[in-house]
Fold this protein.
Amino acid sequence: MENSKPTLHYLQNPGSQQCLWLLEELGIEYDLVFYKREKGRAPDALKETHPLGKAPQLATASGRVIAERSAIAFYLIETYDGEGRFKVPTPELDLDWNSKDNAKFREEQLLSLAQTAINQYLSMKVTVTVFANHAPFFIRPFLQGLRWGLDKIYLDAEIDNSFKVLDAELEGREYFNGTKHPTRLDFVMQWYVDFAAQGCQVDLSLYPRVKAWFERCISRDAWKRSLEKGNGYDLEFWKMKMA
Ligand SMILES: N[C@@H](CCC(=O)N[C@@H](CS)C(=O)NCC(=O)O)C(=O)O
């Protein structure tokens, strides 16, 4: 269906927030459709707009529905960022794939780190914890032992290692690509860092540049406006599941 503006399908708590943040940064007109969770999950209505049935989803002005927050950020920046404020810069060194300062390459590598490795560690941590805490009492001690073991011998060390890499990448940079404004990498990464800090109690003070970057992101006016416009960005949701 033709519309003059894009529509963000927004599910409360918490994964759609970064797309709303980007829409606010771009300063364009958009529509918002709110969804509430049902028993913690996305409602079936989200399957009517995209077969994955998850949020966020973006219906473009021409009616195409895009899923996956990284793809949504890519589309929004390519379509609406005429001034290139949120684009990865393309200086000459970006033609040199051997340069460690090649921003395009860094973006590719860190997006992959966030969406595959970090996402996997955090999701595993949350899933095992939720199962352990809500299992029938007779298998709970076994699952809690499994969770403890997984955390100690695998997940905590992997998360720590990934966050050390993120911290090193931010040396001398306000945002991950050394720009004055966030780029797609920052919009996507902000979610995983928040998920780690609030959802999985990763202590950001161990990674001071990541902590400073995170505070820089959430002190932006557009982030604050996005919180007012959403219908709930509350990682207590995770804490409740993890308790
Ligand atoms: N890989 C997707 C993740 C989509 C996703 O899992 N969204 C969550 C919210 S953070 C959701 O819809 N959860 C509800 C459910 O799985 O039922 C992306 O990056 O956008």
